[in-house]
Amino acid sequence: MGSLLVVEDDDATRRCLGRIVTRYRVVRFASSVDEALGLLESRTDWCGILVDLNLGPRANGGFEILERARERFPDVPCALVTGQIEVAVVNRAATMNTAVFGKPVGEAELGAFLRRVIARDHAFQTSLATRLEALSAEWKLSPREYEIVAWLVAGQTRDAYLLRSGMAETTFRTHMKHIFRKAGASSFAELLSLALRRLFSNEELTTNDDARS
Fold it and tell me: What is the pTM of this model?
């Protein structure tokens, strides 16, 4: 799995964001523009980037980070967090294909962004990621439930998911009960069949080599 970069200079906000996103991906934290730029230069395994707009004395420092991120990783999902949403900020973020969230931000607000991160990490084709997003909305899946369904659709096994995510088997079973109920399925096989029928016509799923290992 790739890493998620979170850039936030406020300790309380960083802890809050960390509690949410660390449940889904390995997180690398930075508290300044320079630290974040250094991480972007030294690593290439990013699956998502979540940045505060104003960092210390550098107003709009988040945009400096996003500009560099877009140069190096144009397809990685990015999101900007700000305490005051303004039209100019939203418009500039839109030119970078970056979502904008107002503080305080919680798991519900970050749900769509986290699903994009998961889809990116599985290297799903854009059309398939869009269909999976729609299916997730229809079934009202949480980001974690979405990740599990995405993992199964990508042809991976339960044991492999438990190994890579570090999730306890009892927790996994609880999530699966919720997914079965929401999807109207009673088994792994039925769930996968339902999902594949909804997601595919004649298109094939594309995953990266790492996801298959």
Answer: 0.68
